Each structure stands twice: as C-alpha cells, then as structure tokens.
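Support reply, case 0932

Customer input (verbatim):
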Amino acid sequence: MAERKIEGFDHKAFAKNLAVQAGQVVPADISSADKKFVVDIVYKFSFLSGDALIKDETITLDGAQASLITQFIGEWSFHKSIDLIRSKIDPSLREGILQRVAFTVFEIAKQATLKRMPQEQIIPLVEHHVNVCFKQALEDLKKKGVLDEKAEEDALKQSNIDTMAQVEAEKEAIGADMSDTKILKLASLALLIKNFPQAKIKNILAKFNKPERDVLLQYLSMKDLETKIDTKITQRCLSEIKQALPEPQNMSFERIQKKIFKIVKNSDKQEISNIIKDERPQIREFVLSGAQCDVNIPARVANVIYKYLEEKIL
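Our regenerated output:
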C-alpha cells in the first residue's frame, strides 16, 4: 500500500528547512548546546506534525495548508524553547513543556485551517492558546514540586516572539540605508556612554550626522538596552570603534612611554636594539629600560621615537 501524500508537501524536507532557518536566527546569548536543542526540537515537532497530517485520513488539506500548520508548530517550538532556556528551566523539563505547546498549536491551527479561517485570524488565536497552555504546563510542574514559583515567574516573563518583533520594528524605524554592522556599533556605543554626564553625551552626539545621531538617541532612551545586545558583540564593536578613532594629537609623555613599552615587550629585544643602535645613548636607554625608565625626554621626542618604532616593527 502506497504511503498517503499531500500534494506539494514534503514534510521531511519542510521540517529540515524550518530547523535550518531556526539555527540561523537563534539569539547570540544562547549557548551552542542549547542552540542544538532548539534546532533539534524544531525539526522533531515539525516532522511529527507533518507526518500526522499526512496519515490523518479524516481530513483533506492541500500543500499550502499543511505547510502553514507545520510552520506554526516550528515557530512556536522555537520561541518557547528560547523562553525556557533564558528562564533557566531545567533541561529535563523542557521537552515535556514544549510537547504540550506543540500539540496545542497543532490542534488549534488544524481546526482553524479546516474551517478556512484567514491567516490573520489564526495567528492571534494560536498565540492565545499557546500562552494558556504554556502557563498551565508550568503550573502543573509547580504543583508536582519539580518547579518553584520563581522559575515559573521567570519563564512567564519571557517572550522571545515579542523581543524579535521589537528588534525588527526598530531596524525598520532606523531605516534600510544603514547597515546592521553600523547599527550594532551605534547600539554598543550607546550602551557605553548612557551613564556619562549629559554634557559629555551631548558633545559625543554632536560629532555624528543626523541619521546616526537619531539612532544613538533611540538606543540611549531604551531602559533595557543591556538585555538586547550580546556582551561579546558589544566588546567586538567597541574594539572596532576604538581602532578606527584617530590618535589624540597631544599625547602625554606617560601615554607615549606606555605605548613604546608595549612595542618593546611584544617584540624581539635584539631586533629593537638593532633598530636603535645608532641613536644617542639616552634614547637607547629610554627605549630598552621600558616601564622602569626615569630618563627625562620631551613628549615630542618620545612621540617621534614611538612613531619610528611603530613603523619598523608593527
């Protein structure tokens, strides 16, 4: 007997595609192990959903309808798994909760589709039942004593679907003419300066053109900015900003000395000696003695030495 099929619906390929898409948008704060869990759970429940639709001889669906129902399963499995991970729900409890959510989505989306409800009505209907089911699943675990009240509250506060929607809305508001990289750098800069004195912030803002200034102001006004930017991304962006900044024209002697000391420390001492072998004894002593140097040299001369070493070594 041939396997029953829905024309235009390859449930295995569709589930795999949803899992791949999920892997591409897993938030940066999710660990590699948890990311694998998210991708695997999206594939598993999407596959099971598609398989159940194909085998159910009591219903008639076309490829688009079956895909829509399965997509609901994949999307909500993705969002609620992120919510459970972020609220630090024990890994052993996650799949059971998500299974209840997936079953709820499956039944609601299937019945709504069979009734030929428009998609814009199905979306809020499914979301409502997901929230009710998710809360009930957590409540049941709390009653069994395997989940405390704080963990339940933390899980209910999470909403990855709202977070992603807000981020997308902010990107649209900022404008398509600004790259994601620039937006990340401006957001990172806002995080760095948000606690600066207002006068200093004003001076910094004045150095940017209007579109960039508007983005900075938008991020500076966000009360929960820290929760929306991954710290590793922030550090990388700030490092790139620092490298792009020009050196101050009038550096202090101490600052120049530290820079010279860093070059000497990270270089072969014999190579440094060869570079400065024809310099005056005072200059050689200044360069080679590093942080312990007490040679009195004008900052202007020290800066010339630094630039010379930088050109030869770096």
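We compared this against your earlier run and they match. Two observations from our side: The mean pLDDT is 81. The CA atoms of residues 87 and 155 lie 5 Å apart. Please reopen the case if you see a mismatch on your end.
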